[in-house]
Fold these 2 entries.
Entry 1:
Amino acid sequence: MAPITVVEGRRLALSNLEKVLYPATGFTKGEVLHYYATVAEVLLPHLRDRAVSFLRYPDGPDGQVFFTKNVPPGTPEWVTTAEVPRVEGPSRMVLVQDLPSLMWAANLVTEFHTHQWLVDTPETADRIVFDLDPGAPASIVQCCEVALWLRERLADDGIEAYAKTSGSKGLHLLAAVRGASSEQVSEYAKELAVEAERAMPRLALHRMTRSLRPGKVFVDWSQNAARKTTATPYTLRARPEPTVSAPVTWEEVEQCEAPGRLDFEARDLASRVQDHGDLLGPLLDPGRAGSLP
């Protein structure tokens, strides 16, 4: 029987804490839960009021991996849920609003993925995102070059950008925006991706075509579509090691000269948060959101 833990007055059955989920490092499910508890202060603000999709890997990244968008069976009644619009009709999804619901979701062994809009205003995007995905032999180094170009281009339009690792092999660029629909943000993001390709034709690519991608960075603008989600800041990823989608400074991006330079695992985040706080905190300030031109 799973031990019962009380988190802020909520009773949770946390199971299989000794189970190794990342064999390459021996990282256990208990350590997954400890990681999420450790970063809850900076993670929760990026989850709050956003419908959450879970990428679940209960037997580790080498086992079955599957997306859960609807409210999972057995979800406690105290976990907040909301009806959200979907292409195929409305759906009820989970909102991770507090530490108990974060720990409940982490016990399912999950990556957290969120939309670029808040659940109360699904018709209005509040973030723009670019997923910079390198095609070998390109790496995070080339992603950083493209990110720096996009940062300056966004700044030309009065939009301040921030970066985080994808937790895999690429980089995510995010900015807070206001007064636009997901469709308008998607159109603007595509325009900038096309501009990036024109400015750096040997480096950047705005199309997903596989045959074009070797040696280039795919500037994925499509995750701004209302139905799409992106890995939430600070989420663990289903990779061989317990890598994290970690916020990074622009100085780190500028100084990225070798693959692996911006790889961060769960064990790295406590000290980073202590040193930097939430590097993506400005995204949460409505007063710092930019307007599309």
Entry 2:
Amino acid sequence: MPTAAEKSSAPSSSTPRFRQGAGRISLDFVRTLRYRGTATAVDELSDPAALAAWVRQCGPIRAGRIAPPTAAALTEARAVREAAYALIEAARSGAGADACPGSARRILNNSALGAPPAPQLSNGQLSWIAEDPVSATLVLIARDALELATSEHADRIRICAGADCHALFLDTSRPGSRRWCSMGTCGNRAKKAALRERTEGR
């Protein structure tokens, strides 16, 4: 199945609505609560149509229109997102994934029981299908969060050093010293701010 990083590098005829490139689909999904923990936090999953748009852009299913889900499905999606965040934060801590609250574990375990998008090969091309793309993508997200938090890569999950960003990402750099969710955004802003400080200090 294509990773979030691979899909984010694919060419697009329009500017993507949602951020990608965190390295795992569960981390990209957690990012839909932007500026988490700050006074300027914004929930990008503002309504069912926004959830459908995220699944269309960031999930593996590319064919066909994805209809807006129900309000209940949006509530479930937000619950999966927050459970994934709680698990990943526990995995990043010294206590590890076992420190994840039981309620978050139950949400992710229950969601992971469903059927994820299924692969289909046609004319040499691989695609992904599901009767309910939104529900199937939530299954994929829950499974990915569970796998990531208990894997050897858990200690490579970072939080962006950008002021007020707080986005999570998987550091796949060889030295393990990546600081920014994106060099094109937070990294670039930090470099410009540092340059201004040096210039003004002369």
